[in-house]
Amino acid sequence: MKTNLSKSEKFTVAAVFLGIILAFVTYEIFNKADYAYQPLIMQGWLDEKIPIISIFVIPYLSFHLLAAVVVPVLSLRLGGFKVFLVNGLSIIVGQLCLDVAYAFFQTQVPRTPVPGHSFFDWVLVHVVYGNDQPLNGFPSNHVTWSVISIIALWRVRGIAPKTSWILMVWFSTILPATVFLHQHFLIDIYGGIFVAFSVYWAMMFLIQKPNLGLNL
Asked: Which UniProt key words apply to this protein (predicted)?
């Protein structure tokens, strides 16, 4: 693994991080937009039975820092330039796919009263609900970026097993957090997982061209 980056690689790393920032900005643009139609509510019978568990605001709010900064840095330092590039471009391309869905198929999750007055309930109401509109539901941005991060961490687990496994478990809690905080419906999780795996493997085959062992 090469540890010293060339000037062009350093420029690319900076450009990728800028792209990740812009990816988050596009999410916010669609989340704050006004729509001429009523966004679709994709609630299933099981969604109606899921309670609010506000302690999940902890992994939920940690998501962007970990997915946008920590995991890409680990991918670069542990996996190398190409592994970082796959990780970063997966986030950017994945968000572009989500933006297309948000632009043409906007969904929402109606707010429900928070049944408590604990510290975590306060954070959920004033920090999460207070700054995030109930839009951009399908596919879930949190799930897409989290699953991409899990795949990236899985690939470097042999180099830093303890750090990788702790972060993979942490990211795994973000998936249920999206529904336990009533920010998403279950179908949004499936959509996010599909987008994450699709873009990650597409970027990996495009950039790293892995050997599948086919003797043709």
From this structure: Membrane, Transmembrane, Transmembrane helix
Give the separation between CA 2 and CA 204, rounded to whole angstroms: 18
- Alpha helices by DSSP H, listed for the chain, are 7-31, 57-65, 71-74, 81-104, 119-123, 130-131, 141-155, 161-180, 186-207
Q: What is the pLDDT of residues 61-70, one digit of tens each?
A: 999 899 999 9
Residue 89 tokens, joined: 């471009």
Residues of the chain with pLDDT under 50: 214-216
According to DSSP, residue 181 is labeled T
* Cα–Cα distance for residue pair 199/205, rounded to 1 Å: 10
Tens digits of residue pLDDT in 6-15: 999 999 999 9
Cis ω before 210 (30° cut-off from 0): no
The set of residues, in sequence order, having a beta carbon less than 8 Å from that of 67 and lying 6+ positions away, is 91, 145, 146, 148, 149, 171
Amino acid code (one letter) for 60: Y
User: Residue ranges per domain, the chain?
Assistant: 54-207
Cα–Cα distance measured from residue 206 to residue 5, given in angstroms and rounded to the nearest whole number: 21
